[in-house]
């Protein structure tokens, strides 16, 4: 029980929170952060997209990936994403979240502040993605509180804030992770029955979910196995270790592997299989040294010390424990008390009572100054850890530069010979290619000219079709609406001339007046659709706002936001922008069955940005119906007419998002 007690006392926060920032599911990537190809996939997507909003999201994900690996690279990607988000309030809220991720390991106060700002900004958005980000804001804030030894606050935030939000977001992978985090809190508070309940929930959710981060499942297997061992349930612990073992080859070596080796060695220690335990410990130590993880180095080393003691190898155990004390970076005085006591006991076993007494004396001094030393050591260790990290980064950078310079010098001669050979070869080939190039250039120019003509004809045809469709609609409105009313007026006038009774004439005259009023209203409606008077009199922003208000009804809420819309946009371009928005809102009203729409229009110099998101039924972009396709084509034609770009993101039951950039 002594070894178990120490393990519980020495377990500190970073063991499970190395992957605290969640991978978002809004952008589709081939693999998660556990995959070595993950950053290259993101860079490839950056090169293949023209949308600033999509680029911003990709930059944020790259910043998140490098946050705990290379802070300079992470910061550079973060600033790129922030710059592309300047005109989009939603993306600004996301950038605050990624600032929190960036500062998570280097500045706790700034990290907490960034998560708070992001969560507050996201309260206005009722989408699955917004819920997911808010859940992670609460979760990461909770992990930061756990670093301050506020485990109860962490459990409360996860249970009452993060989990309800992540259920709304529909992300089972993060739901399973949060259950595992809560299990860890109860395990570290010696409440193994409660911890078991949440570990079981976590494993159940993660096993039935196609997860992007297998390391999360491996971590939960390891932690739950430890918890079973503390409860005395060795068989259950072995079953989980057997499940975890196949995952080792599918995940990049990391802390999840080290956690597995610790749990495995603890199982062998409990079952008195000491040689197997030492073998597992050595595997874990080798990886922990590569990862420079001092916490696991100390934890595994202490377990090794206990096993050596049980084997009667007191001298070897004593040397190992002295090295642990010498290199220990933990700020927990309970750990050092255990270490001092164990070293005194070991010296006693070796018959060196003088040394045993000296270490017992150190133990008493440590206990007397417990409160003061706890505070001082925590501050000092944080400072040392930060400075050491910065020095190691500088040393690594200098070493990399030195190696690079040496390699360049060695390869310069080879490059020069290769360059000479290439130049001779190119000189020979250029003469042959020149004649071919001239003829080929003429042919390409002809093809380009023909293609431009075809595109111009196609665009003109599309515009004419849209105009013809608009004329047909106006003609139909005039015939069905205004024509019918005026026909009724004509009939009533005929009746009026025939009627001789004054009261009857007055009634007919009143009907005629009402019908004329109706015809005036109908005429204004038709004229407004042809050329909105609000646009002419008050400008684009007011016209868009009036358009939104005219569409809002009991089952549809439209949140419109205008940012820096200028008054210098030419009228013909204002009208095209108005028609684009009219087509978007009409499509949403007719086809999406949405209850909420978020519409944002902004201008940055001569670029005009439109973002429209709804929570409707969405659709498969590869299987667009004729009705929806006609509206989308009308939008695309008008966007192309203004030299703009359009991006449509939609899937069945996931709503639709439209991002447009126009040249005004």
UniProtKB/TrEMBL annotation:
Secretion signal span: 1-22
Lineage: Bacteria, Pseudomonadati, Bacteroidota, Flavobacteriia, Flavobacteriales
Keyword vocabulary terms for this entry: ATP-binding, Coiled coil, Kinase, Membrane, Nucleotide-binding, Phosphoprotein, Signal, Transferase, Transmembrane, Transmembrane helix, Two-component regulatory system
Every Histidine kinase domain range: 473-664
GO terms for cellular component: membrane
Catalytic activity: ATP + protein L-histidine = ADP + protein N-phospho-L-histidine
Name of the protein described by the UniProt record: histidine kinase
Molecular-function annotations in GO: ATP binding; phosphorelay sensor kinase activity; protein dimerization activity
Enzyme superclass (EC): transferase
SUPFAM superfamilies (alphabetical): ATPase domain of HSP90 chaperone/DNA topoisomerase II/histidine kinase, TPR-like
Transmembrane segments: 414-437
Coiled-coil spans in chain: 372-399
Keyword field contains ATP-binding: yes
